[in-house]
Amino acid sequence: MTVWDRPEPPTRPAPLDRGRIVAAAIALADEGGLEAVSLRKVAALLDVGPMRLYGYISTKEELFDLMVDHVYAEILPEERPGDWREALHGLAHRTRQASLRHEWLADLLGGRPALGPNALAVTEATLAAFDGLTDLDTVMRAVETVSAYVTGAIRREIANLRAERATGLSDREWQHASGPHVTRMLATGRFPALATFVHEGTEVEPEASFATGLDWVLDAVAAKLDRPAGEPFRITP
Amino acid sequence: MTVWDRPEPPTRPAPLDRGRIVAAAIALADEGGLEAVSLRKVAALLDVGPMRLYGYISTKEELFDLMVDHVYAEILPEERPGDWREALHGLAHRTRQASLRHEWLADLLGGRPALGPNALAVTEATLAAFDGLTDLDTVMRAVETVSAYVTGAIRREIANLRAERATGLSDREWQHASGPHVTRMLATGRFPALATFVHEGTEVEPEASFATGLDWVLDAVAAKLDRPAGEPFRITP
DNA sequence: CTCATGTCGATACACTGTATTTTGGTGAGA
DNA sequence: TCTCACCAAAATACAGTGTATCGACATGAG
């Protein structure tokens, strides 16, 4: 009677928990986008009946929230930033990188308030970088303005990326060459400004355009911080 | 034999066309959000079998694209703006207003490239306002930066609005009072900056915060326009 | 009057999120 | 040791989804 005779005990599947569920969902989404995430497929990936999931989440939306918060962990700054500008700059670029790794994030960004622990930690770190600099309202405006830009810019970038992938052509090539619809539209002569841009514009790296747009917005914030409006806020410890 | 005896001829339903389909879809979405839009319901609203729609639309995504472009008609400026700043300012506020009238627009904004005729017309009008002002790249950066901000800000505003509606409390009230989860989080002491904001922050009108954020971004653009980088672009007529 | 054509409705399929019911195993009490 | 109660998990069920396919019918041509 050796090991080889004895059958392996039936490998009891690792006990279920939110972590495993979220990981499976993210794997599916990374592969095939958000629409590839179905509770049935997630459950199947975990060798479990679909209904089991409802012990850990109560709706599919909740699963999405968990996925988002899981990615916010990748967005957390690794070390305390030197100043507010570095903080916002880093936040923006890490959010962008995360969205390139997990394109589905672009579909969810800004879709609902992010209140998971990691998202809160990210906000905390960002706000902390403004400690003692200006009044509370200005800080709020600064953070929200930059976040809005970041959300919007990332969404556009991912949308263009997908469009390119779908047509096999880069954005500019496509317009130049013969995106049938747009070319026809431009040919009508009703869009002279647009036509000028399409014909004389040059291709720009997405990252570069993200970065310079971001710099502009950060400059704007800097300008406002120069003239503090009221009591500077201090974190009450 | 009077009119009253003669039965009405069976009112042949108005012939189908994209316009009617899109209008029906928008009606449904205005009422119950994007998820209330199903091809079957749209078809039912038009007294038609679901498959009829595929003569006019080849996929549900296409219907969404048409809906978006339909709303872009509401975003078109009514009169030629005085200068670029007025153009961008107006574009931003009209987009926001449209999103408040059609909340589902926030879910679609930035989700994919907007290439419908009305969207193109909006872009045309915007670009035209920069005629002769700076080089082409700067104009592009300006328009894209502002658009990104607008998309992001609107998405956040609508997301908060929905959250409020769902809980019956305004954002700040909610955090103050006892959004159970967040309050618990704050109580851990791990988020001192956030806690300061929640406790000492004052409620701000969404429109005001949208407007000031927008002004900041427009200021940033103005600063860049002051120092033109290269050949100013002229619309080639 | 017949036949071809092509449009429209009905049916069908594979799948979705989730509610409800059935099952099976495990503990306590007799 | 046997039985019963409980409770987690699986199976089934339901009402819907987007879309492909097929069949009938009306309309126009020959």
Question: What do you see in this structure?
Answer:
Two copies of one chain form a homodimer. With 237 residues, chain A is mainly alpha-helical. Chain A has two domains: 1-58, Arc Repressor Mutant, subunit A (Orthogonal Bundle), CATH 1.10.10; 71-226, Tetracycline Repressor, domain 2, CATH 1.10.357. Helix content of chain A is 63%, strand content 0%. Chain A contains eleven helices and no strands. Chain A has helices spanning 18-32, 39-45, 60-75, 84-101, 104-108, 117-128, 136-167, 171-177, 180-187, 192-200, 206-226. The radius of gyration of chain A is 23 Å and the shape is flat. At the A-B interface, helix 6, helix 7, helix 9, helix 10 and helix 11 of A face helix 6, helix 7, helix 9, helix 10 and helix 11 of B. Chain A binds a DNA duplex (30 and 30 nucleotides) through residues 38-40, 48-52, 54-55, 59-60.
